[in-house]
Amino acid sequence: MIHGPYWVMTVLGVLATGLMAGVFAAFSLLVMRGLAALPPAQGVAAMNAINAAATTPAFMVVFAGAGVVCAVIAVVTFVLWPDGGTAELLLGSAMYLVGAFGVTAVANVPRNDTLMRLEPGAPQAVAYWPSYVRQWTRWNHVRTASSAAAALTYLLALV
Questions:
Q1: Which spans are transmembrane here (predicted)?
Q2: What percent of the chain has a predicted confidence (pLDDT) above 90?
Q3: Per the confidence metrics, is the pTM higher than 0.85?
Q4: What is the full DSSP assignment across the chain?
């Protein structure tokens, strides 16, 4: 059983990664389905507006904050090597940092950048949109599952 500062850090890890799992799940299950149902020009314009809003401090504090919490848990665990929960703490951190934060950087953001460069009604945007929705959502499922798995793994470290 984890005690003291490890307990506080782990609870923060559960909350941060669980919150991000919910955000990612809502996007996959609701937002992307709604956007995919729109005509391509409207879907592209709406997604570009959402991506612009995602870079505001409100979302970045939550998203990057979860990454910072996971990184701190990993470093402190690796350096101090607690008596219990070590494997769960390291695994939970790796799942979020690689499966959510890393996937965002290498899969979702590059697609967002490509979409942002396209004029919503242009033939290139209309042609790119179905592929974008399919691939972006697939990678978002990975982020959802990784964040949920990280939260569950951190939770297991508490018992």
A1: 6-31, 52-81, 87-109
A2: 88
A3: yes
A4: ---HHHHHHHHHHHHHHHHHHHHHHHIIIIIHHHHHHS-HHHHHHHHHHHHHHHTSHHHHHHHHHHHHHHHHHHHHHHHH--SSSHHHHHHHHHHHIIIIIIHIIIIIHHHHHHHHTS-TTSHHHHHHHHHHHHHHHHHHHHHHHHHHHHHHHHHHHH-
Euclidean distance between CA atoms 44 and 12, whole angstroms: 35
pLDDT for the residue numbered 5: 83
The position carrying tokens 């910072």 is 68
Report residue 39 as tokens: 């005509």
89-109 tens-digit pLDDT? 999 999 999 999 999 999 999
Of the candidates 4, 15, 24, 39, the one whose C-alpha atom is nearest the C-alpha of residue 154 is 15
Give CA separation, 113 vs 12, 51, 142, in Å. Answer: 31, 9, 19
Please name the amino acid found at residue 112: N
Distances (CA, A) of 36 to 84, 93, 129, 132: 46, 32, 8, 10
